[in-house]
Every structure is written in C-alpha cells, then in structure tokens.
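Researcher: Go.
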Amino acid sequence: MSGKREQRRGGKHQKKRRCKAPLIIVLILIAAVLIVAALWFWARSGTGEAAESSENNQTAETDEIVDSSADMEDEVEAESSLPEVEQSISLTLSSVYTSSILNPDCEGEYAEEIASLEVTNSSDSYLVSATLTATMSDGTEVLFEVYDLPAGATAEIFDTENQSMDSGVTCTSLVCTSEEYIDEDMLLSDTIEVATSASDAVITNTGTDDLTDLTVVYHCDMAGQYFGGTSYTITIDSLVAGESYTLSDNTLMGEVTVVRIYQ
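Model: Structure:
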C-alpha cells in the first residue's frame, strides 16, 4: 500500500509539473511582449525628440541667417546713403556718426554727441591739408579739417566747433573747400629709419652725416587709423650719424605714427 501511495503521490506530483510548464511559457511570452513594447516606445520617443531638436536647430539657423541678411542690408543701405565728397581730388567718405569724446580737433575739449567722419586719402600722393564742410539733415553746417594724411591712410575727424547733434540727424552733403597734396619722399628714407617701439617711434640717422633742425610730423594711431584730423610736430635740433631719437607723446590715446620728416 505504501508503495502504491508513493507511486500515486509521485504520479500526482508529476501531473502538477506538467500543468505549470505552459503557464511559465505564457508568462515568459508576456514579459517578452512587454519588453518589446517598452523598447519600441523608447525608440519612438527618442526619434521624436531628435526630430524636434533637429527642427528647432534648423529654425534657429534660419532665424540667424535672416537676421544676418537684415544686418547686411542695413549696412549696405547705410553705406549707399553716404554723400560723396564734392570738389575733392581723392578724399572718400566711409562713415558718418556721432561721438562723445575729448575732441583732438578742438584743442582736446570735451564734446557731447558731435559729428564725426571717417575719411580716406585714396590718391597716391601725400595730403598736406584739407577743409570740408558738411551739411546735416537739420540744416546745420559742420566744419572739418584734416592734416598730413599719407596716401591710402584713413582718419577719424571731428567737428572743429564741438556742436552737439540731435539724435537721427544725418549728413546730406559734404564739400571739400580746400585741398593740398605733395609728391616726395616724406620720411627722408635715404638717411633716416623710423621704427615702432611699444607706443613710441624710434627715429635713427642711418647716414654718414649729422642731421640738424629736423621737423617730425606725427599722428595718433588707433587700430590702424588716425584719431583726429589734427597732426602734431616736434623739432629735433641735432641727430648725429648712427644715433637714434625716441619720440614719445603721453597725451595721445594711441600710438605715435610718424608721417613726415623734413628740414
């Protein structure tokens, strides 16, 4: 009896195991389906975010291009609205604006919102001096002067009378009323060498003879263009052959740039 019971218990136990196997398979299949669904949802979500990010980037780039194009159009319009320098041999105008500065063209007096021009000597000659009269859109006339501008050089020049301008006033005409040029070796390069040291200019007599009574003309150079139409001069009484003279000017905002030397 005990043996039969054991066999019957054993048979009963085996029957239960056969019933559990399909259930486990079903559970595994359900788990697999859930995992696949989760992966599919995650992939769709990532793709959507990437697409949205790409779309946002494209929109930002498009906006940037539009803004850049608008800025370029404004610049072109501003340049095209500049008047030509009438009655001038070679002076060209590249900018008109207002400045609040210690005006080098009005003996260093402080100026509030005065008219300023950026002019270039477009000739192959040395400009000794020029006087220009600008007429503004409100009818105001502004006087400008520029001195000692080498060929190809550009200068920021300022109203010589420090008249404050109203906001929005523009330059409608610019007339050159006097102009003088010369053609010669402006730096006496056969006997003199000019070099830059920090913000100073070093002038060296490279000849064999002593030099006397040298007049040196220089400008204040800021970022490659002259600050002010005003030029400055010093006199070197004697410069022995082989010796150097260091020209310093602590009153300038920029570097000393020698533009002419003569006796």
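Model: The chain is about 30% helix and 45% strand.
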